[in-house]
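protien #1 (seq + structre)
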Amino acid sequence: MNRIHFKSPDNKEEFDKYDLFRWKILRQPIGKSVESLKDEHENSSFHLIGLIDKKIVACGRLHLNSPDEAQIRFMAVDDYHRGKGIGKQVVEELESYAKLKKVDSIILNARDHAIRFYEKSGYEVVGPYKGSDTGIPHSKMIKKI
């Protein structure tokens, strides 16, 4: 397998490809529009893409909820590259950015089928998350850093 390269999208073309990628993985399968990807944190977030041969194969986003707390959202790895450790690398890259921002903890709202994945990275379930617009059960998770 070719080596993955992580970076933030740095131009409109890369952001458009990033948006399309995360929509195809996370939102299209459940009938959500591309516009459903955007929230009030979009412009102030740290966006991350994982590239193999200049093709996006993974992504994630981190924003600050407060000076002490960051939140991971929109984590995705394409089907072909799952189970190869790329998702773990995305989490580690987002956590490294959060540490630079000197936050105490990171939260996320995991789809229930992804809980074990996040637990392996040290996140703990703290309860159900009821604010999802996807109709898919989620659990709120946290990790102290």
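ok now protien #2
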Amino acid sequence: METDAVLRLLQDVAAEVVTPRFRALGRDDVSSKKRPGDLVTVADREAEVLITAALVAAHPGAVVLGEEAVAADPSLLRGWATAEHAFTVDPVDGTRNFVKGSPDHAVMVAELRSGEVVRSWIWQPQHRTAYVAERGAGAWRDGVRLDAGTAVPRTRGRTGTCCGVDYPRLATGEAGWGVWLKTKPWDHAPGSLLLTEAGGSVGGLHGSAYRPGAPPRVLVARSRDQRM
């Protein structure tokens, strides 16, 4: 799929099954995963099914790693990182925010070639803002190229919302740094490319490079003028 087509896919799916549930979730529309407080909604499940189906139809040989699919079957993680062609899907990043009625959530996809992120998409449906990145070609917000070192920040503190909001804040220079102990690929693969293409950095505490298939135990991200 062309880059613009994937973005339209995320926008269409969000409009169909995510946004109609925003601040309209019923009691039976929200449940917990294995860990207490780790929520999933009907919007997460339906969005992942639709996005996955479209990616598989367009790229029959690719491995599509969805957050909810892995929650149901962790064995799906085996071998995906070494696949020649793969995608990660986070159908609603920031589910707790979504459940609470916060607009700070996103739909995210990353494309990988031999374990390296080559394209990524972050769509924030309530903010109506799209972030797209292509390896070696740059990062954009709504079609405007980003540079994490030139924006005038509202704050230079750390992030702390959800990856679909935090990485864009780093990429635009609105935040200076972020630290994560949870390093699931669907959370970090999209934003890591966005940030690095905007001039920032993502990796381990001691400067090791970030790879979605073998992330460091602690992941650190910084905007351009606060590199590791």
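Residues 3-226 form a domain with the Fructose-1,6-Bisphosphatase; Chain A, domain 1 fold (CATH 3.30.540.10).
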